[in-house]
Amino acid sequence: MTEETDSQDPAGDSEAGATTAESTTAAGGRAPSRRSVIGWGGAGLALGAAVAGGAAVALRGTDGTEPAGSAGAAVPFHGAHQAGIATAVPDRLHFAAFDVTTGDRAELVRLLKDWTAAAALMTAGRPVGEGAFGGLPEAPPDDTGEAVGLKPSRLTLTIGFGPSLFTADSGDRAGGRDRFGLAGRRPEALVDLPKFPGDNLDPARGGGDLCVQACADDPQVAVHAIRNLARIGFGRTAIRWSQLGFGKTSSTTPEAQTPRNLFGFKDGTRNVAGTDDAALDRHVWVSPKAGPDWMAGGSYLVARRIAMRIESWDRTSLQEQEDVFGRDKGEGAAVGKAGEHDEPFLKSMLPTSHVRLAHPDSNGGARMLRRGYSYTDGTDGLGRLDAGLFFLAYQHDVREAFIPVQRSLSRADALNEYIQHVGSAVFAVPPGVRDRDDWWGRELFS
Known about the structure:
Blueprint: H1 39-55, E1 92-100, H2 105-123, E2 156-161, H3 164-167, E3 210-216, H4 219-232, E4 237-248, H5 277-283, E5 299-308, H6 310-314, H7 318-325, H8 354-358, E6 369-370, E7 373-379, E8 385-395, H9 402-412, E9 419-429, H10 442-445
Antiparallel strand pairs: 1-3, 1-4, 2-3, 4-7, 5-8, 5-9, 6-8, 7-8
Helix pairs in contact: 1-2, 2-4
């Protein structure tokens, strides 16, 4: 849970840190029906053009970002970077990892084009294809319909590519033939994460060829987005695992109130701000010099499911809770300080405190941009809440950020008594879709 560095941190102070029944084309005509073309590939780009032609109106500030409180607004889909990283963090999450079930490279490319077109429509608050009704009665609708009448709710959709997409046969996650001719294009920074002390990872909650992160202020909007992408991908992809999240545990808008995690502590006090271009360039975006070319302007995502031992924590004294974090529970101030944002004096904290171990000064300046969410999934079968933090962190190089920080935390963090990492995945997140002719991953497959 990294607090000061934005690693994985439930206590994460983390320093690091108008729906319509049918779509129209930009020229104002009816978009091609999926029933009049072969598959989604032909209709997809035309549908994407409808959005690019000005169908969506987004609320944006003078710095190019949308106001944090614009809950009903649409976040622009096109841009140099994918939305859902530095953009303001909405309140809800539906994250899904997919296995690619086709071995045909052309089919995978067609899928990515179809997904891109659908994503552009959904983030603008529009239905997919001809919508959920009004089409041929004999055919399934193009859209599942549960978001009809709902606002865009700041929906963002962010895609990533897992290590297995570059190396593994679909039936052998550890290795195998190069399915799509991508082995030579795997970024050096897209490494398999090592096993850290205390990890108890469930293979059913990790890995994946592709991932899609859907964030929105309305949970139904986020679920609708993942559901429709899964439907479009049927026969070409299958969901490997997914996670619902609520109550963002970090923010990219420092002017807003710092959220709290399930342990009751403020989380993300010193997270990388979405308006801090210098910090984003240094710590989040992949530099053109870092390589490969197709990742320039992209980022690397680490996703970790961190179980929190709620019952044990709730029986722990306030003083011990604050010692574990190195911050007070009310204001969020570091030990010996008065304000939440006062610079911490690390030596005044216990050597095992979370803030001290996760702080950039303890990790060679390493920082990450965190977008984590809390989760609850019933009980663990032993009468305890199955709850915790779904940790999401973006960085320019996993080897220089998450891995060294997590090594430090896993060895000595007092918080480890109350948490355990149970799911893990890493993805290369390509740059944004620049215009109506672009699509997710185009430069990778060029």
